[in-house]
Amino acid sequence: MSTFATETSVLEDIEIGLLLEGLYRAHGFDFRDYSRASIKRRILEMMRAEKLETVSAFQNRILHDAAALDRFLLGLSVHATAMFRDPSFYSTFRRKVVPLLRTYPTVQIWIAGCSTGEEVYSLAILLQEERLYEKCRIYATDISQAVLRRARDGIFPLAAMRDYTNNYHQSGGVHEFSDYYTAQYDSVIFSSGLKHNVVFSEHNLATDGSFNEFQVILCRNVMIYFNKDLQARVHKLLYDSLSMFGVFGLGNKESLQFTPRASAYEHLNTNDKLYRKVM
Amino acid sequence: MVVGTSIGGLKALPVLLSGLSAGFPVPIVLVQHRGKDSESGLCEFLNQGSKLPVSEPEDKEPLLPGHAYLAPRDYHLLIADGSFALSTDPPVIFARPSIDVLFESAADEYEDRAIGVILTGANQDGTRGLARIKSRGGLALVEDPVTAARAEMPQAAITRIHVDWILPLPEIAPRLEKLCDVATAGGLTAHGPKAVHYGT
Fold first, then answer.
1. Does the pLDDT value for residue A5 go beyond 60?
2. Would you say B29 and B77 are in contact if contact means Cβ atoms under 8 Å apart?
3. H or E element: which one contains A187?
4. pLDDT band (50, 70, 90) for residue A7
5. Measured distance CA(A175)–CA(A168) in Å, rounded
6. What is the complex's ipTM, to 2 decimals?
7. pLDDT tens digit sequence for A145-196
8. Where are the alpha helices (DSSP H) in A50-188?
């Protein structure tokens, strides 16, 4: 049993390598530099959900069945996150970033790796409350069409609202959070006014280039899924896409420390991962 | 070395940490189940009784010997290529951080050099991860459920896995000191982490 289990696990590593290589060659989706521990877990979970026994069988399905490929991309892009996750990030954004944005005639914002859109709606609410929304354009990108559809729909489980409401108030929100959505059965749909300046679009951080110059880029808890090489490449891409004195936001356990770009930014606030490009 | 605990861990972890000497030769990674809104003072609390510095790692921070690392709340903590990797994947058996997630990645990373320790707790998280550590040739230590604050978690591991040691809490640190002495002197750490790269 023990020997067999070892062999299975080693074989799985080999099979996952082949799957990722195949996916890249066949469809151009490059997950080869994703952090191997996380992607292995995800692949094995999805494989079991597809009721398959081996990664090789899963590879066969993904390469030959477009619907299976969509499910796979969706599965890799969905993250269990929350609106106003890390409320102090958003309160710092209100205090430190909003005054900077007031000085610009228009503001281009990129939410790179927007997943199901929790951060997009959080930021849209904040910008509306600060009366900045109308001059902002938010580009929300991710790799999967399916995940972008969900983000665009703006439908979230009602059960999550208690949590989100708490986060919203902790982040400095002063309205009734429920003013922003309409509940129906066990779901809520967020007000369409929150997305009329949002462009949801497909973009792959691992393979696509820069497509604009931004005053704000948020890429929170996205690069944690990448290995160091890919992180370095994406940091360069984001740096190149950010205007001078533009604002860059990371997740609260991410760091510039392990990237080659650290010296190009200064911290806006020591406790939150908000930076300003200074060189 | 990876350690997992839930209820009772706030009393058990200081006992374990205070029994380990400064300069303990391998990195120690701790998962204590806690709510996503829990206060972040846990790390300071654990530092008080520990001769090893305890910190919450950031993504891609390298693991260093002589350090203890506490999994941050509301993330899974994994190990790959000698560094930490965080994830916001959904909770596993209602837990994020999950003990199984950490242990399984440690088993893949360190193979027969991994040591998994399960302390007091009231659910079954950790059993799968400890099984993976055993299947890749690592060692499993479990707190004796008879004297543990909560028996369920250690009991679940013992029921399903052939563990190497079942020890009362005060004897775990001395055992780990002996094991890691042997390990650093005798070659358990003689081969580096096995590198698996998916890239070309």
1. no
2. yes
3. strand A187-190
4. low
5. 9
6. 0.91
7. 999 999 999 999 999 999 999 999 999 998 999 999 999 999 999 999 999 9
8. 55-64, 66-77, 87-92, 98-101, 118-129, 145-153, 161-170
CB contact, 8 Å: A54 with chain B? no
Range B27-48 average pLDDT: 88
Report how many helices (DSSP H) and strands (DSSP E) chain B contains, helices first: 6, 9
Among this protein's residues, is B76 annotated catalytic?
no
In the numeric block, which tokens belong to residue A235?
Answer: 């940091």
Phi-psi region of B60 (alpha: psi -120 to 50; beta: other; left: phi over 0): left
Active site residue B33: yes
**pLDDT (mean) for A205-225:** 96
**Tokens linked to A137:** 């354009």
Q: How far is CA A138 from CA A105, A133, A182, in A?
A: 15, 9, 23
Give alpha helix (H) positions in B54-168.
99-110, 127-135, 152-160
CB pairs under 8 A between A and B: 109
Cα A255 from Cα A257, distance rounded (Å): 5
Are A248 and A275 in contact by the 8 Å Cβ rule? The answer is yes
The closest of A176, A195, A184 to A158, measured between CA atoms, is A184
In the residue annotation, B98 being an active-site residue is answered as no
Whether residue A228 lies within 8 A of chain B, CB to CB, comes out as: yes
B45: exposed, middle or buried (Cβ count in 10 Å: 0-12, 13-18, 19+):
middle
Chain B residue whose CA is closest to A231: B60
Instruction: Report H helices in A93-227.
Output: 98-101, 118-129, 145-153, 161-170
Quick one: which of A157, A155, A160, A92 has its CA closest to A126? A92
DSSP A251: -
Residue B122: CB atoms within 10 A of its CB come to 14
